[in-house]
Amino acid sequence: MKNRFFLRIFISLFLVAMLSMTILLLVSVDGVTKYYLSTVEDGMEKSLSVISSNTSALLSAGDTSALDLFFISVAKSTGYRLTLIDTSGTVILDSDENPKSMGNHKDRPEIESALNNKAGKSMRFSITRQQDMLYIAILLNIEGKSPVILRIASYVSHTKEAVADFYGRFTLIALFVVICMVIVSYLLTKNVYGPIDRLVTVSKRIADGDFDARVVIFRKDELKVLAESFNIMAEKVKKLFSQSEESREELNKIISTMHEGVLVIDRGGKILLSNEAAKRMFESENMEGRNFREIVRNPDFSELVNRCALEKSGVSGEFKNQNRDILVNLGYIEGVNETVATLFDITAIRETDRMRRDFIMNASHELRTPLTAIRGFIETMSDGVEGENKKYLEIIERHTERLVNIVEDLLSLSSLEHTERLEKEFTDPVKLTEEVVRIMKPKAEMKGLSVTFEHDSPPKISIDIFKFEQVLINLIDNAIKYTDKGFVKVRLNHDESTLLLEIEDSGIGISDEHRKRIFERFYVANKSRSKKSGGTGLGLAIVKHIVLLHDGTVDFKSSNEGTLFLVKLPLNQERSR
Q1: Tens digit of pLDDT for each residue in 57-82?
Q2: Which of 168, 275, 460, 529 sits most deeply, having the most CB atoms within 10 A of its CB?
Q3: Residue 236 sits in which domain range?
Q4: The model's pTM
Q5: Is residue 255 a contact partner of residue 248, using CB atoms and an 8 Å limit?
Q6: 524 and 428 belong to one structural domain
Q7: Number of independent structural domains in the chain
Q8: Residue closest to 566 by CA, chosen among 504, 511, 517
């Protein structure tokens, strides 16, 4: 593995060298062969010129014997084979063979060219001599005689021997050059690979955590620049890692000291991180690496985690775990597909809330009896009291009524908080609203206000009739209380899934500073008017509680020219609570 890159470079250089030498060898052999053949051919042509003159002279003299001796003499001195052929292709004389044993040569390529008065050349295998030969033939025109063809031939084997000799010498030279190139390739490869190997070694050390490792290269080229850049990068990585470790340690300290439990869960449900608070909350020391369902055996928590991962957004909810009430906020981390759960133990808060509700209910019940008795005595005394005492009695009566209203509202709110199941039934919301408007209309007319009701014929809806009447009464009563002149409008509209109740008035409105607290218990936006009208500050709290029990929402819009309350309830309420 370590030397693979080195071998790739070395083998590549070696193959290039071998390929270059092979191509050079092939080209050289071909060139030398052509050169030798060309040299032989030139020599044959020069010799043929001289031989043809002598042959013509001897033929003119008619001395065939002298010509035969001349052919034999030339063949011995030059190594050429001489042949004399007539125009019919019959061999007349030959320096090496008996003409009578030789076949007709008219079909030979060089003879055909010579008959056409051209110098014929041909290299082919000789059947007579059983080897390759180079032939050159010319036509001799002799005065007073028939034309004849003079052919000279040379053995190609001489040329092949010369080429083979050259090939052997060249091979030895090439082998020496290849050995030199192998040595040079090795040295060049080592020269290039050495710095790269050091870079690889140092990068592995840095990957293993040794951020002080550096590359040292004693040269002045691009690899030196690369090494310096690598060292700068390593220094920056060291600083970044140090900062990251410091941030991580700080984060771990913060998480470990948090009173709230923290869990980090991957997309497979495995717990990646937990703090001490979470371990105490679920009474488990070893949480990392385990599935959260093993630790938190609650289907509500599993559903919240799955919903957060599916929707990839924040989710909140409550669940119980071993007699503990736990509030959880879930956040999704995109990119790593992890879910962060922040857990709050609200057991003490829920217990305090339960005690508060019980106290309010008990106190309200205890106050109802004496207040009823006080109201009865006031009614009895009112007929027999006159003058200054009459005024005092009216003050007592007004405050008693206010206390009675507060007690009734507290009992109503306490009852709602203890309600686990609504008494729902399908009813016509138009008729129900018309009845409440009819009851509240006289109170509005006493202040000179007009009360109108509009609707778009919504379908029947599954609701708790008594509690929905409370919503209507409280909202319409509030509108009348805080409106001195103008109107109160009640509207019922719907779409495919929602019933929309709107209560609009032309009263004094609600300023922005009261928006966040308007639905809190005992919160009054206009205290002087509330005291005058006998308001308890619980009406809107009751409205919100009832609407939430019906899985609905309540909100308002307000200005100096009036207020519009909007209640939305789902039409397809199949679930009872």
Answers
A1: 888 877 878 888 888 888 888 888 88
A2: 275
A3: 212-247
A4: 0.43
A5: no
A6: yes
A7: 5
A8: 504
